[in-house]
Amino acid sequence: MTRLLRPACAAGALTLLLAGCQLFPSGGPGQHTIHAGAALTVPVSQPYQGTWTVTALPVWATVSKTSGTGDVAFTLTVNRGAGVPVNATATGLTGTLALTWKGRDGRMGVTTWPISALNYRLSGQVTSGATVQGTQVQVRSAAPVTTTATARGVIVTYRDSPSGLQAQSRGTMPAERALSTLRAGGIAVGRAAPLGARSALLRVAATEAAIAALKADPQVLSVTENAVLRPQATLAAPVVPTDQFAPLQWTYRLVGYPAVWRDMATTPYTRPVTVAVIDSGVRYDHPDLQGRLWRSGEGALDVLEAVVDTAGTGNGDGDGPDTDPTDPLTPGRTLGSHGTHVTGIIAARWGDNGATPDCPSCSTTGVIGAVNTANVKVLPIRAIDAEGNTDVAQVAVSVRYAAGLPVVLGGKTYTSPHAAEVINLSLGGEISAATAQPMCDAISEAVAAGSLVVVAAGNGYNETPYYPAACDGAVAVGAVTLSGASAPRRATYSNAYPQVQLSAPGGADYFQTPTYYNGATWDPQGDGSPEPFVDSVLSTGWDYTKNLPNYEVESGTSQAAPQVSALAALLLSKGITTTAAATLERLKATATDLGEVGRDRAFGVGMINAAAALGAPAVSDTLGLRLQDDRGRAVQPPLDAMGRFTAYVGEGTFRVIAGRDRNANGVYGEVGEPRIERQAVLGPDTPTADVGELTPQ
């Protein structure tokens, strides 16, 4: 992939520049080949008289200087991680650097230089011990014999037709010979029993001395531990929703909900929980939200004044604060309903949604929400106007109201009859801490009242704290998306800063770098021509052009935050936790650590894991590898038949995790799953590393 920089002699893409500029290689910089080898940086110098500009580079390279007059001179820096393919099988990177130039004689042209770099090599082997499935023993390991305290003796096997032993009983010979060998070495043996014509079981500690003594006999073919095997519990079947668009909702699979929904089939999630969604309001008439919302008279509230937007056209309904938080149709409105989308992620109903015949385009099953059959309802609070804006004061009022505290609007006091145990804020902005203080004060009051306040970390593509996510007491949520490997990656738009506490699926940036790793397809035209579905979040929405319900694709930390809010509500509904503080600790303790070990600015403590948090049953049991660097970039090298792998990667500290996947999300070695982790540091000084054998425990 080539990144285009500003061309010197023509506007537009590089292809236009090449076609529109006269190419006189003899009048420009001479030919040059840049090979970085294993280095991170390499100086580049070429004599020249005239002006020059670097107009194109591979995505994995940068230069210290992009233009100049006279000799071409700059330092090229290699960022291998940006160019390594997901399968990590490329031993090196290749590309071209393009220079546009203008000589003293006025001639212009383009010269291209090939550039290359070697990737670093990381290898190892993933193995598994013996497992029992029913009555069949399967050994999936090439591991050598180890000595453990849990082995029940050792098994010795002799060679065929051992010399000098033909006259003895073949049934007793192995046991007697093994006993004699061990006693001669002064090793105490409990008893021995024949296992066949050539093998015997010896009830002796599987020590190095015992194994070495038996192996010293030239007639011995092998000595192995009599390993302890245990029957495996029958796996529960993951729940696969049948709603029309559920196959497109990959975010739930990524955090282990198929196991959680199986748990719901046998375990009550009966404690009533309210999740307040402070947003643009909601479409009560969306069929997939029927019965999942508190309505007017039950606590729902619109906090907006009659005129609050920058255009001065009113907030959409124009009647000021009231108990109807419907996200309204306004003249010329085309964008969908943000609040309806966020609400559906949490609580969209399953199965037949009762769509009426007067909406022939409506799906009768639609999408699904995380909470499924749990006793969870959403309290809509409208604080964002028709232009998509709100302000500090309105957010502060909404947070206090959501927590069950009284607020005064238009001279009238409002108190919610359903104080929210969880408050979701998929909003925020790049403002100062001082400016945000009223919101932070409101969050502190809500926390004191017993609410867990979950806030989107922001979509600024930077490391600037957004508020109210960065307020003390708020749970700032970053976004992850699919990477094509078994570990998700941080979404490029997701702000990274110290206050980020957790991450959740928010989807890829479908405007700048769309990806299609989820594997689902859809037929947007309805003509039988399916297309790959983008790695974004599908949920309930509203078509304001037709004034009808629909289902919309969005990406952002706005979509990640309700994933955390939904899981928090389920912890409370099942009764695993009973307080906001305990709920947050459970979310953190069961999160999947990504990026650097422990908490970091990009992921917080990690991505939420619904299956682990809720103690859901195992619905899968597969062995695999998770490999990513300390910046959260993941790769997936193939494993051969013996579990060996070789990954060609960039510089950095790499976490190499072998583990089992018990919740069918394709992420190996999460909390509560067998795992083993090793680290390797790769760079110019250590271009290769072997982490050895990895056997999850």
UniProtKB/TrEMBL annotation:
<comment type="similarity">
    <text>Belongs to the peptidase S8 family.</text>
</comment>
<dbReference type="InterPro" id="IPR050131">
    <property type="entry name" value="Peptidase_S8_subtilisin-like"/>
</dbReference>
<dbReference type="InterPro" id="IPR023828">
    <property type="entry name" value="Peptidase_S8_Ser-AS"/>
</dbReference>
<feature type="active site" description="Charge relay system">
    <location>
        <position position="338"/>
    </location>
</feature>
<dbReference type="InterPro" id="IPR000209">
    <property type="entry name" value="Peptidase_S8/S53_dom"/>
</dbReference>
<dbReference type="InterPro" id="IPR015500">
    <property type="entry name" value="Peptidase_S8_subtilisin-rel"/>
</dbReference>
<keyword id="KW-0720">Serine protease</keyword>
<dbReference type="Pfam" id="PF00082">
    <property type="entry name" value="Peptidase_S8"/>
</dbReference>
<dbReference type="InterPro" id="IPR022398">
    <property type="entry name" value="Peptidase_S8_His-AS"/>
</dbReference>
<feature type="region of interest" description="Disordered">
    <location>
        <begin position="310"/>
        <end position="336"/>
    </location>
</feature>
<feature type="active site" description="Charge relay system">
    <location>
        <position position="279"/>
    </location>
</feature>
<dbReference type="InterPro" id="IPR023827">
    <property type="entry name" value="Peptidase_S8_Asp-AS"/>
</dbReference>
<dbReference type="InterPro" id="IPR036852">
    <property type="entry name" value="Peptidase_S8/S53_dom_sf"/>
</dbReference>
<keyword id="KW-0378">Hydrolase</keyword>
<keyword id="KW-0645">Protease</keyword>
<feature type="signal peptide">
    <location>
        <begin position="1"/>
        <end position="19"/>
    </location>
</feature>
<feature type="domain" description="Peptidase S8/S53">
    <location>
        <begin position="273"/>
        <end position="606"/>
    </location>
</feature>
<feature type="active site" description="Charge relay system">
    <location>
        <position position="558"/>
    </location>
</feature>
<keyword id="KW-0732">Signal</keyword>
<protein>
    <submittedName>
        <fullName>S8 family serine peptidase</fullName>
    </submittedName>
</protein>
<feature type="region of interest" description="Disordered">
    <location>
        <begin position="678"/>
        <end position="697"/>
    </location>
</feature>
